[in-house]
Amino acid sequence: MFTARVFGFRITVEAGFLFLFCLIFLSGFQIASILNLPFLFTLFIASGIEFGFLSSLLMHEAMHLVVARKYGHEGRKIFLLLFGAAGIIEKKFKEPKEEFFIALAGPLTSLTLGGIFLGTFFVLDGLYAAGRLSDVFVLELIAFFCQVFGILNSILGVFNLLPAYPTDGGRILNSFFWKFYGEEKGLRYSLVVGNVFSFLFIGAGVLSFSYGRWSGLWYILLGTWLFFQQQSIKESSSLPPDSPDADSTWPHE
Description:
There is one protein chain. The protein has one domain. Helix content is 67%, strand content 10%. It has helices at 17-32, 39-70, 96-129, 137-160, 168-181, 183-210, 215-236, and strands at 2-6, 9-13, 77-81, 84-89, 248-252. It has a five-stranded mixed β-sheet.
């Protein structure tokens, strides 16, 4: 476990995150190989993709905590885990509106970043096509990074909008259930929907793995992790509101 402070946030790296770190680096190396550059240049670009992914993940998570502070919550801790990141909000939400806007902040940030990066890429690509930009390697590299970061942030934003509680989308859905059915019943409905998505991930993973695709194992692990998170939340929801184990967390991405 490693802990550091960045812009006022205490960031803790759990051991499981090292697996995700290596996976992203290998994926970045595979993407960078498309450019057919020398090995050292490919390593440099893969490192850049890794840095961009981590920055995007932390920015996504930090925005949850920034908005949470607007509602009077203390949130300065971010954990980097096997399946992404989790921001710690130290008190339960008081009303559905809080949960809605805090949950929306992360995906909205990622989708905004995705739009900015992809927009920049399309502008540069259009200028190249029109012959208004010379064939300069640095500009090509900037366009490449913009395309990759745009896609990564868009995927991060869209994935977190899936209503697989406790993802952001699941919490957004829960805020509506809470408003119309009450907090306890709303959480129960959200967990049921989340369970469905957990089993869908596991089922898709098993099917993919049966066809010899190793990526299916990742879906199985993700679905299993989501299911156990849901079970943990179900158990903690029965605790008294002032119990330290009843605090809200943001385990997703």
